[in-house]
Task: inverse folding
């Protein structure tokens, strides 16, 4: 498929009433126009100074001559008012900020969890939506589907800012790697890779991190898309490795709404997706205990991530991709501005 | 009664199992729910497992108990029917089938049954059948009859209620008194039987408890209930009306043995009547039937108001040439209790009597003063040559048992010459119903033979020395004012005049001792007896005989030898009637008891050849070794005695006991007090238990248990519902607000969904496919 602009992608992305069209452009189905609209005002900013191989939006750690005007950018909440161009404001009544500092591009590595637990989903979807191996026959919007949607959205935003985006698909080890690239078609490759990837193995996050760090030389932003059903200590070890190598990490813990609420009513045998066995329970009786355990797990991971200075976000797979992602981008921009890196 | 029949019980239990079966089937078919966050479920399960198990066990126990108790409540009759400890109850029916139960129920009487019932027994039968019909399956019925002797005619209690009803419907009134005391003892013993342990029991007394049935002067024995099973005692309401009823209480012939000789015999028959209940002025026609030479005209008794007793006298004449027992039946008009309207007796008609004189013959001098005793006796017995009494004389040394058996009476003039074996023969003869007359030997100054009287079982004490009366007094006279002994009842009217000229010059002083065995005396003016008569006791030596344990025969003894140097009796008019009455009346008394009450097993001592008895309907009853019928004599009327060759050797009248025919009602308060002596009886229709309450009290002692079981089931169901709701945490909690209200844990929040960077809520469709899908488990 040839390069398209944003409008083309948005036009192809959502055609609820045209299954044939949706089938033809399945990759676009993960990017709804609403998502793009919600994400467009934001830039993905690295909290940390990253090393780039090309000029970009991010401030370079290297001092140089290029402290000069570069371009105008529409004002976004959180931007430094010192950079507001009042002349333009007075002429056109529009808010623009001047960008004149040399910036470098950002390497973003998406780490997508393709373990069996990501195959879980409780949201019925229309025929033709989704389309990954995890949701194919079930007709459910799985956590893996949501991870794919998030990956596509993040990559799209990054690519739009000329950042390089790469991807690692893992379960108990790295299953696929997509090299970093700033090409506009990179997100389609991401979709193609994820759409057909098997989601049927257990997780080993620490091992995967070890393997990944062996392949990434420069500092980068790692966006982990996983349910993080791992032992917190394992996650701590893995994140320590990231921190040690100077990487930035965003943990996006994707959970299904039924996992978050556990509002099931009927006694049934529950069967683990990663070989945990079968357990016949009354969910109403175990709800409090389950939620307590899950909350404790989430809190533990949050504390670990915060301790390393990383972001940790719990994402409801039943929610839209756009608003949470916009929230994330805004938080990161605000944080970068407060720390004087923006 | 149980409100749930067996089919319903089975259906109920099956229905209760249906949801369980559905649950089990459904449980098998539940598809597993794939779940990613299994590790957290497992953690929760590990923490919750113990509590969950306890909760589930409590729920399981409650549910199982509900089913168990429900099934038990429904199936209780089945368990009871199987003879188990728990379940249905026992109903013991104590039914009055005594003679009084034949009384016709007066319309409007309290407790009167349906119009079909015309006797008290019919009413009792109907009540019994009704009570049985009211029982549920698994209940058992036992039947005790009140007629003496009380008998458990259906025991152990049966669960075959139809059979019990058939037995009850076959009950007939018997001509015997009620044996309430025996029934109480019997019922108490049956209630304590092991086979009824744990089963509630009810004893239902079905009787009007009229005076013929319930002798309130005789306290009832305490029922020997030694079981801890719940027992209810319910009596029917006592009869409240007293209809007038006339009973022939006695038919008394002038002589039990009529000696008619070759000519036309005759005598008197007295019919004594008794009236109970309504004592208004009335008339009663009395008839006398028998094999008489001439028809006996009926008599009419005119009752005055309040009069309760009357006697009708009949003069009868027997056909000549008879030498047999004649039935004589007295009848009155039929009234409310037909069983007491007729009474039979037997009069033995003889052409002559045989008397055996035991004396040693010797040549007499012709001196009237020295005329031997036996001569005087013989002359008294045969005052004329064609007298119907034959006299034989036998020497004391040659006395044989055959001599005794062939004589109607034995007069021993020389008891001093009898050796020990002869005394033993006399004893056996008396025991078998013989009549022995002892006369003191006239020429023996010391009467040592009197020591032998104790061998005969007589309580008399006789001085050995002959005591002379002071000649100056002119002799010891007889007391003309003394009442006539039974032996002389036929001459009682003339007796004062007859005894007045008689005096004794010498005599033996006799102490008659305690008045047992029917001792009777004809006393001198000083109170010592001139004549004593008694039935010797059967008790062993040294023991005191009782009325119930006496010989069938009779011993008569004179204190004077009938000789002129002892007394002037031989020359006085009393001599002939005295000896004639001793022989005639004595022979009658020992031979014919005058009739026996129905329901008894009398000893048939005479005639000795009697081998079996035949009742008026031709039914044969054998005699046992003690010469008693092998079963009580229940048929009222005249029984025939047969010897081994089927020849008739005698007859026996069986009659209803007069006391048992009293139909007047007892006061209910007295009945209640009387019954209380036996146990905690309640009168039906009063207090806690009633006639209609038989159903509740008996068949449904078990029904009460069932009701309590059902109450327990309901309580358990409520408890189970509360526990199930609490343990299942059924309150829906889907939002944080709901959880807060319910005091439950809120859901885990997604940190990237609620609010955007500007603080405004974010929403709308996202990358996720269109629409929020239906939440699925």
Result:
């Amino acid at each position: 498929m040839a390069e398209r602009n944003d409008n083309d992608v948005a036009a192809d992305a959502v055609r609820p009433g045209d299954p044939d069209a949706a089938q033809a452009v399945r990759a676009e189905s993960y990017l709804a126009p609403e998502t793009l609209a919600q994400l467009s005002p934001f830039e993905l900013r690295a909290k940390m100074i990253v090393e780039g191989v090309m000029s970009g939006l991010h401030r370079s750690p290297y001092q140089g001559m290029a402290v000069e005007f570069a371009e105008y950018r529409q004002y976004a909440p959180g931007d430094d008012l010192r950079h507001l161009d009042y002349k333009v404001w007075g002429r056109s009544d529009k808010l623009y900020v001047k960008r004149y500092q040399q910036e470098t591009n950002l390497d973003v590595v998406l780490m997508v969890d393709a373990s069996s637990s990501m195959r879980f989903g409780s949201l019925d979807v229309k025929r033709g939506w989704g389309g990954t191996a995890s949701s194919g026959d079930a007709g459910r919007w799985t956590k893996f589907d949501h991870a794919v949607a998030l990956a596509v959205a993040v990559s799209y935003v990054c690519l739009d800012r000329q950042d390089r985006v790469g991807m690692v698909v893992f379960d108990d080890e790295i299953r696929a790697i997509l090299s970093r690239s700033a090409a506009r078609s990179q997100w389609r490759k991401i979709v193609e890779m994820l759409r057909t990837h098997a989601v049927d193995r257990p997780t080993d996050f620490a091992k995967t991190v070890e393997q990944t760090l062996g392949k990434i030389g420069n500092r980068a932003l790692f966006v982990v898309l996983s349910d993080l059903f791992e032992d917190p200590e394992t996650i701590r070890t893995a994140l320590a490795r990231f921190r040690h190598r100077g990487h930035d990490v965003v943990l996006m813990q994707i959970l299904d709404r039924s996992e978050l609420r556990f509002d099931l009513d009927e006694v049934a045998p529950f069967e683990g997706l990663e070989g945990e066995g079968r357990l016949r329970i009354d969910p109403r009786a175990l709800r409090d205990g389950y939620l307590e355990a899950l909350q404790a797990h989430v809190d533990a991971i949050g504390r670990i991530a915060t301790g390393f200075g990383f972001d940790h976000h719990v994402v409801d797979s039943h929610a839209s991709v756009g608003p949470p992602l916009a929230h994330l981008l805004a938080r990161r921009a605000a944080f970068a501005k407060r720390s004087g890196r923006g | 009664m149980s409100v749930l029949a067996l089919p319903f019980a089975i259906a109920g239990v099956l229905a209760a199992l249906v949801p369980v079966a559905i649950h089990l089937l459904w449980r098998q078919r539940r598809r597993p729910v794939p779940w990613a966050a299994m590790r957290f479920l497992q953690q929760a399960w590990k923490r919750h497992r113990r509590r969950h198990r306890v909760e589930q066990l409590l729920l399981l126990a409650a549910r199982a108990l509900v089913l168990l108790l429900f099934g038990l409540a429904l199936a209780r009759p089945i368990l009871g029917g199987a003879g188990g400890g728990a379940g249905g109850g026992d109903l013991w029916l104590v039914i009055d089938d005594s003679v009084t139960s034949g009384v016709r129920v007066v319309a409007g009487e309290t407790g009167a049954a349906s119009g079909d019932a015309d006797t008290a027994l019919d009413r009792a039968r109907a009540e019994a059948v009704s009570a049985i019909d009211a029982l549920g399956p698994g209940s058992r019925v036992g039947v005790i009859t009140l007629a003496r002797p009380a008998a458990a005619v259906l025991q152990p209690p049966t669960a075959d209620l139809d059979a019990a009803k058939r037995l009850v419907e076959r009950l007939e009134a018997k001509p015997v008194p009620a044996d309430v005391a025996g029934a109480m003892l019997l019922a108490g013993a049956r209630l304590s039987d092991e086979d009824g342990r744990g089963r509630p029991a009810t004893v239902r007394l079905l009787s009007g408890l009229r005076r013929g049935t319930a002798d309130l002067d005789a306290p009832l024995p305490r029922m020997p209930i030694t079981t801890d099973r719940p027992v209810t005692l319910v009596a029917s309401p006592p009869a409240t009306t007293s209809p007038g009823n006339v009973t022939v209480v006695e038919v008394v012939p002038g002589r039990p043995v009529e000696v008619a000789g070759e000519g036309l015999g005759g005598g008197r028959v007295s019919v004594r009547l008794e009236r109970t209940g309504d004592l208004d002025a009335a008339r009663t026609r009395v008839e006398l039937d028998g094999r008489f030479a001439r028809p006996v005209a009926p008599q009419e008794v005119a009752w005055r108001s309040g009069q309760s007793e009357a006697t009708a006298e009949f003069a009868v004449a027997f056909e000549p040439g008879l030498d047999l027992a004649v039935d004589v039946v007295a009848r009155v008009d039929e009234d409310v209790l037909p069983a007491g309207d007729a009474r039979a007796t037997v009069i033995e008609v003889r052409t002559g009597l045989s008397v055996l004189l035991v004396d040693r013959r010797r040549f007499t001098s012709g001196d009237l003063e020295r005329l031997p005793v036996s001569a005087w006796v013989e002359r008294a017995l045969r005052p004329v040559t064609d007298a119907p009494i034959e006299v034989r004389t036998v020497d004391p040394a040659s006395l044989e048992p055959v001599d005794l058996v062939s004589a109607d009476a034995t007069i021993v003039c020389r008891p001093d010459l009898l050796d020990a074996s002869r005394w033993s023969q006399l004893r056996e003869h008396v025991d078998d119903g013989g009549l022995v007359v002892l006369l003191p030997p006239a020429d023996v100054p010391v009467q040592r033979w009197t020591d032998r009287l104790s061998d005969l079982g007589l309580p008399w004490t006789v001085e050995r020395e002959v005591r002379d009366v002071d000649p100056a007094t002119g002799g010891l006279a007889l007391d003309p004012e003394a009442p006539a002994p039974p032996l002389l009842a036929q001459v009682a009217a003339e007796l004062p005049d007859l005894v007045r000229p008689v005096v004794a010059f010498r005599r033996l002083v006799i102490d008659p001792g305690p008045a047992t065995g029917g001792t009777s005396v004809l006393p001198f003016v000083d109170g010592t007896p001139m004549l004593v008569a008694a039935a010797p006791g059967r008790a062993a030596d040294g023991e005191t005989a009782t009325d119930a344990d006496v010989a069938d025969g009779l011993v008569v003894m004179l204190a004077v030898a009938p000789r002129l140097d002892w007394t002037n009796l031989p020359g006085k008019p009393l001599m002939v009637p005295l000896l004639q009455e001793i022989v005639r009346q004595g022979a009658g008394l020992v031979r014919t008891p005058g009739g026996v009450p129905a329901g008894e097993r009398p000893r048939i001592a005479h005639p000795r050849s009697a081998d079996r008895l035949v009742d008026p309907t031709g039914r044969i009853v054998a005699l046992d070794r003690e010469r008693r019928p092998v079963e009580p004599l229940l048929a009222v009327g005249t029984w025939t005695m047969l010897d081994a060759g089927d020849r008739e050797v005698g007859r026996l009248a069986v009659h209803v006991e007069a006391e048992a025919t009293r139909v007047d009602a007892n006061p209910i308060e007295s009945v209640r007090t009387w019954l209380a002596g036996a146990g905690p009886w309640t009168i039906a229709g009063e207090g806690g238990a009633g006639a209609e309450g038989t159903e509740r009290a008996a068949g449904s002692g078990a029904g009460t248990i069932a009701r309590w079981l059902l109450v327990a089931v309901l309580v358990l169901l409520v408890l189970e519902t509360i526990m199930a709701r609490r343990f299942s945490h059924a309150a829906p909690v889907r939002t944080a607000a709901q959880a807060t209200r319910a005091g439950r844990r809120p859901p885990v929040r997604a940190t990237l969904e609620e609010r955007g960077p500007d603080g405004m809520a974010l929403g709308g469709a996202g990358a996720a496919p269109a629409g929020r899908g239906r939440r699925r488990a």
